[in-house]
Amino acid sequence: MGCTDSNTENDQHWSLESLNKAYQQGYMAGLTGQTNTPRALAADVLIAAWEAGWDDGHEQFELHKRHSA
């Protein structure tokens, strides 16, 4: 049960603003063709937000690349 309590504490260190920021950072990384490796995010929920942003940004990157060729 100690692990669960610790994970809950870590996941509570985020806000809507930090989720949005993580998403935007991930989006820009994906949009510019960077690798899918979130940097220095402590909470799993922030990592998930960053990865969601990266997925969306990378999709746009690939679409742009196809249309530019």
Automatic annotation (TrEMBL):
InterPro entries reported for this sequence: Ribosome_modulation_factor, RMF_sf
Any single GO BP term: regulation of translation
Gene3D superfamilies listed in its UniProt record: ribosome modulation factor like domain (1.10.10.620)
Keyword Cytoplasm tagged: yes
UniProt entry keywords in alphabetical sequence: Cytoplasm, Translation regulation
Source organism superkingdom: Bacteria
NCBIfam families with a match to the protein in the record: PRK14563.1 (NF011162)
This protein's name: Ribosome modulation factor
